[in-house]
Amino acid sequence: MSISLNVNGKAVSVEAEPDTPLLWVLREDIGLTGTKFGCGVAACGACSVHVDGQITRSCSIAVGDVAGKSVTTIEGLKSADGTLHRVQQAWIDAQVPQCGYCQSGQIMAAVALIQRTGSPSDAQIDEAMTNICRCGTYPRIRKAIHAATGKATAPQDGAA
Amino acid sequence: MADNPNPNLAEDAAPTSAKKKGFKRRAFLIGGVAVVGAGLFGIKLSDSRAATKATALTTGKGEHNFATWLKIAEDDQITIYSPHTDIGQGSNTGLAQMLAEELDAAWDKVSLVSAPAESGFANTGLGRGFLGEMSGQPGIVNGIPQSFMSFIARSMNLQITGGSSALRYTGQVTFQKVGAATRLALIEVAAGRLGVPAAELTTAGSKVLHAKSGKSLRYGELAAAAAALSLDSDPQLKSPKDYKLMRTSVPRLDLPAKVDGSAQYGMDFTVPDMRVATIKAAPVRGGKLTSVDLAPAMAVKGVEKVIKLDNAVAVIAKGYWPALGGLRALSPQFSDGGNAGISTASIFKAYDDLFAKGEPAEEAGVGDVQAGLGAKPIEAKYQVPFLHHAMMEPFALTAHFKDGKLTLWGGMQDPLATKMLAAEVAELDADNVTFHPMLIGGSFGRRLPMYMEIVEQVTRLAMQLPYPVKLIWSREEEVAQGAYRPQSAAILKAAIGTDGKIAAFSNDYGQPESAESETTFIYDLPVVARRHYEYASNQQAGAWRSVNSTQQGFYNESFMDELAHAAKADPVEFRRRHLKPGSRHLAVLDEVAKRSGWGTPLPEDVGRGVAIVESFKTIVAHVIEASVKEDGSPKVLKVTTVVDAGSIVNPDAAAAQIEGGTIMGLSSAIGEAITLEQGAVQQSNLTDYPILKLADAPAVHDIHFLNSGAFMGGIGEPGVPPAAPALANALFAATGKRIRQLPLLTQAKA
Known about the structure:
The structure holds 2 protein chains of 2 kinds.
Chain A: E1 2-7, E2 10-15, H1 22-29, E3 48-51, E4 54-57, E5 70-72, H2 86-93, H3 103-117, H4 122-128, H5 138-148
Chain B: H1 9-13, H2 27-39, H3 48-58, E1 63-66, E2 70-73, E3 78-82, H4 91-103, E4 110-114, H5 124-135, H6 146-155, H7 166-194, E5 201-204, E6 207-210, E7 215-218, H8 219-227, H9 256-259, E8 275-281, E9 289-291, H10 295-298, E10 303-308, E11 312-317, H11 320-329, E12 333-334, H12 344-357, E13 362-366, H13 369-373, E14 378-384, E15 396-402, E16 405-410, H14 415-426, E17 433-437, H15 453-463, E18 469-472, H16 475-480, E19 488-496, E20 502-511, E21 528-534, H17 549-566, H18 571-577, H19 584-596, E22 607-615, E23 618-628, E24 634-644, H20 651-671, E25 676-677, E26 680-681, E27 700-705, H21 723-735, H22 744-749
Helix pairs in contact in B: 2-5, 4-7, 5-6, 5-7, 7-8, 14-15, 17-21, 20-21
């Protein structure tokens, strides 16, 4: 059936079974592959996107339930002129990614956290940032979130 | 493999091969040594064809190639071809730094891309380095001509990433020399054009400069003539004091594409008309597909075909979701290959039986250990589980067979071996197979050539299908069909003399393969025995980040702590007694003690633990401060780390590897375990294979590099091994309870 939604500011209509997870519609039908498949059961967060501003694990929400809603993916974070979102820039400044596969989801989770809290505390970061990173980039994720919200870099890590 | 003059990885990597279970992670490298011995004078050195093809593939109009690895364009753009797959460790940026440093290239015009999976890009430097390391005789390769080493690398289809090897072998053995030799060729051409002696010329920023006249020439305008010269095979390298790029933290080249969603991993590949497949293999490794009714899958909308393989069934559909729906609708029946009696408990019992029998498969050490241990040694038994890699990107590989040619796209740790395996499965000449390497979403040893069953699977599917097919493993398949770090056990014994020093030390360990060639016992003791007791279950003996050093590091460093306690000595002071004065190990230990504030007071519920392990020629010591939370799980408060890798190419990228390696080590120690029941893996997804999350990562991690100047060690793996014992030792200091089984979590809750 035909399902209409808004993705990164554009109206999109897709032919899909309504029980198909949003993740696979984004990746295979709309061609936005920045949102990643990690586990399929909402355990890892690699597929995190925003649905009407709420952080959502797209592998576990049916596209039928997203009809008429606004979805933002990693590809939708840059401004129209191509400038990186301040969280993306903070990710580069802190040299966060290693393999990089989970980082779209990590960045989407961080942006949602900052939108919700303004300037999150360490405890708020601990609570909200539950996405898995097998490379172990967590100390730099924390550092980048603080940097993006104008906080001085906490002495979390770094080579002496 | 010694009787095969042209060892082919593909043969050994086939999932159904009878050799599979016994195939050792580095057997192909050892096999390479055998080739050196068997064929040194018998094989014609005909690698010019491969090099010519490689150069033709990469070098276009207005571009000039140097030693296949480097290309200089007339507009000064410099392109470096890396034989390594950057699996996230940042090695490609480091490699580019090393070559650009010796070339004196302008960094803003340097780019690095993956070398094509062609034999002309086989990794000679790695072959050269590893043959020396694995044979235990680093000098063994010095007398072998470079051209012959190239031939060996090609014979072995060697384009592997592993063993923490990229910078120390490819970088030091090949790329720095290519950069330096190319620089000399550019200077030679410039000297002729300017009519001045070469000695008056200097280089900087991709230009040759003549200070006296103020004239300069761009590399781009010299490249055509320089490429026609033969390169110096052993050029003088820079003195480290002259480095401008190496030993600086230049930003990684690959990160911009990894923050905006544009990076293309194997999972992301797509072509017109492509279908998506997913697969289920026999849950009991070694089993076969015995029967399956295809109708339920065919009834799922979007499913186009179901294909039966020897030990698996695959569903092909318009997309992943219908393919998964089709697969889940099936009720395939598999045999168990006679492995139904294998369980976690049966494997530990097999080790215990072997220990009791006392007939090791391999022994190493010095002195008379029976006499040294005496009648009443201190004794402890340790057990560790299978560990899963849990790379964030599940396997995904695309293949298309058309007009007699097979093309594949995806991310593997050895692109050239991937191509050769696909060619063998498809029964095609290698010239008719192309593999396009793509970004890899983590690996940690999982995508090594010995465990690439997905290459065989997707090739068999593609050969039967008229359209391209992308095979995706579900996370459930990925967890159940791993190449796990082996489950292992060890009994350690020691006697302590009246001088408070260890008089004798033995380590009897059970696992599928010997750990001897991949672990380093650092203590200087009069009597030592290391004995391997061999038992293989139905699981593959996997290579998990730092390989045998994780379990051996846990055994030795936990037991050293027990011995210190028995000797009523401080754990750092006790270790110091057994390290050679003036050694790198002692320097690392002393530095970590100093920086961690070892011996200073802590809150009552906090303990401090130390561990020091050498792996891949790098020495890493962690001091961990930890406590136990109300739910019984450990809380890591602070980690202090000192590393001596000899020297460091990119300090910030190296620190990132130590941070990540430490967290992976802690994660495995705290909660990770793959268990077997009736021959099958019991875990199903990341829900029951718990990986450490941000909230439980160390709040503070101080990392310090000593840079002793020794030959460069690895950096991707050595941060892992000391993490588990340092944590266990810290928890002992905090609670008085010794942990001898991993993961800690089941212990803490017990």
